[in-house]
Design brief:
Distance between the termini of chain B: 30 Å
Radius of gyration of chain B: 19 Å
Distance between the termini of chain A: 55 Å
Shape of chain A: elongated
Largest sheet of chain B: none
Order of helices and strands of chain A: HHHHHHHHHH
Mean pLDDT of chain A: 79
Mean pLDDT of chain B: 77
Order of helices and strands of chain B: HHH
Low-confidence stretches of chain B: none
Number of helices of chain A: 10
Helix content of chain A: over 70%
Number of helices of chain B: 3
Structural class of chain B: mainly alpha
Number of strands of chain B: 0
Strand content of chain A: under 5%
Shape of chain B: elongated
Largest interface: A-B, 27 and 24 residues
Oligomer: heterodimer
Largest sheet of chain A: none
Chain lengths: 389, 69
């Protein structure tokens, strides 16, 4: 009786334990094979170009040291950075920028108060041209301050666009090479002109047309508030309209036409890949199955690396755009705040100057975000190509 | 481009200074309208140049794409 129970127990345990442990072992082997393949492929990459550019940008969002490290962690499925760490860094950045901008806002408000006091003395003695002169001098002093800050913003924004285009010039060739290695020749053929268009054409359009429009509207806003006789409101509206149309046109061209083309090309490559695997499995005698499995490992590791590089590239892009965007945003809000404080004191002209300037500062933010969004879209598209191996 | 912007800035500054130092009277409105006409001419200069054959923008996307490869 006892023996029988033990026998049943043994049989049962064999039944339950064996398959799972066998599966586990097989899983481990698969994982190891994949890991080896990934490491082997990753060793061949040289990211030194990229790492020399992104040192500062990386520090904005994560504590990781190098690009390769981020890619490795992404492949292993580890956490790169806490949500709280990123938020802390953003909050630090915000408060740092606010602290920098407060003195400028205070000086603007102080000059407005001073101008008001002088004007009220003048009103009692009744001299119109002298009050005009004081107004002119006050606005000139405020302008000196604001132009210094806005020039800084302009330089930051154009540097940011340059950085993004440099990153594209490094990330996209790597991703496209990975795609070619994985056999998606049709997609690469379609993506390559897109990369050229994005990393040089769009950047050139932004720098040679959009930024001059921004500068021109800035100058016109200032002149509009300086002279009470020549008004340039309509001309500023015209500039704004040009800006919107050009951005919209570039965006539609890129996002609409090329993205749809890319999606269809990716589908075509997936099908041709499946056909290759089927042909290998069924037409090569005896070895076909093994070869097809080996192909799978190579493809999978390539896929992992490609997607990890894409995600890491997006993270760096986030770090690049974070500082300029927050910088401009804070300046915009500060000018609006100054306008809000100045207006009740009766200095309407200076308030409207601050308000108009803050409206113009949307342009560089829009340009940076548009660039970032196109980059994001395109990397996403590259990551989706052959995702279902 | 920068020459154009600077000339606009100059003409507006001239206008503002005239506004401040000019005495009130009948001739002031004439002077103002003359300044406005000069301003209009300055603003339209690029278009006039363009029509006369000077290229306003020398920029081509296809050249850029070609230089990439």
């Amino acid at each position: 009786m006892n023996k029988r129970i033990i026998l049943v127990f043994l049989v049962l345990s064999c039944l339950f334990l064996t398959p799972s442990s066998c599966l586990l072992a097989e899983d481990n082997v698969e994982n190891n094979q994949l890991e080896n393949e990934v490491n082997k492929q990753l060793e061949n990459f040289d990211f030194s170009n990229l790492e020399s550019i992104v040192d500062n940008d990386l520090a904005n969002i994560t504590d990781e040291e190098s690009f390769k490290e981020i890619v490795m962690r992404l492949i292993n499925g580890e956490q790169i950075t806490d949500a709280t760490t990123i938020l802390d860094k953003i909050v630090d950045l915000l408060f740092g920028q606010i602290k920098q901008i407060i003195p400028i806002v205070m000086i603007i408000i102080a000059i407005a108060i001073l101008g008001n006091i002088v004007n009220s003395f003048q009103a009692s003695s009744g001299g119109k041209s002298v009050s005009d002169l004081t107004h002119f001098v006050c606005i000139a002093v405020v302008l000196v301050l604001i132009i210094a800050v806005v020039k800084n913003v302009y330089v930051n924004a154009s540097n940011c666009i340059n950085d993004i285009s440099n990153q594209m010039a490094i990330i996209f060739p790597v991703l496209l090479t990975m795609l070619t290695a994985m056999g998606s020749v049709v997609s690469v053929g379609i993506y390559q002109p897109v990369v050229a268009f994005l990393s040089s054409g769009v950047v050139a359009i932004f720098k040679n047309i959009i930024y001059p429009i921004f500068l021109l509207s800035l100058v016109f806003v200032i002149l509009n508030n300086l002279s009470s006789q020549i008004k340039l409101n309509k001309f500023i509206l015209f500039m704004g309209s040009c800006f919107k149309w050009i951005i919209g046109f570039v965006f539609t061209l890129f996002a609409g036409v090329l993205a749809i083309q890319g999606i269809s090309a990716g589908r075509y490559d997936t099908i041709s890949l499946k056909a290759t695997r089927f042909a290998m499995k069924s037409y090569i005698p005896i070895l076909g199955g093994y070869l097809s499995d080996g192909l799978d490992y190579v493809m999978l590791s390539g896929l992992l690396i490609k997607n990890a590089i894409g995600v890491a590239g997006l993270l760096i892009m986030l770090g690049t755009i974070l500082v300029p965007v927050i910088n401009i945003l804070i300046l915009k809000l500060a000018l609006q705040f100054a306008a809000g404080i100045i207006e009740p004191m009766g200095n309407v002209k200076m308030a409207s100057l601050c308000e108009d300037l803050s409206k113009i500062l949307v342009y560089p933010i829009v340009v940076i975000l548009a660039m970032a969004f196109m980059y994001f879209l395109f990397v996403g598209l590259l990551m989706c190509t052959i995702s279902g191996v | 481009m920068s020459g154009w912007i600077l000339s606009i800035v100059g003409i507006i500054f001239a206008n503002v200074i005239c506004e401040i130092i000019m005495p009130e009277g009948k001739t002031s409105s004439f002077i103002r309208s003359i300044l406005v006409i000069i301003f209009m001419y300055v603003i339209l200069t690029p278009i006039i140049n363009w029509i006369n054959g000077d290229n306003l923008i020398t920029f081509s996307v296809s050249d850029l794409v070609r230089s990439e490869f």
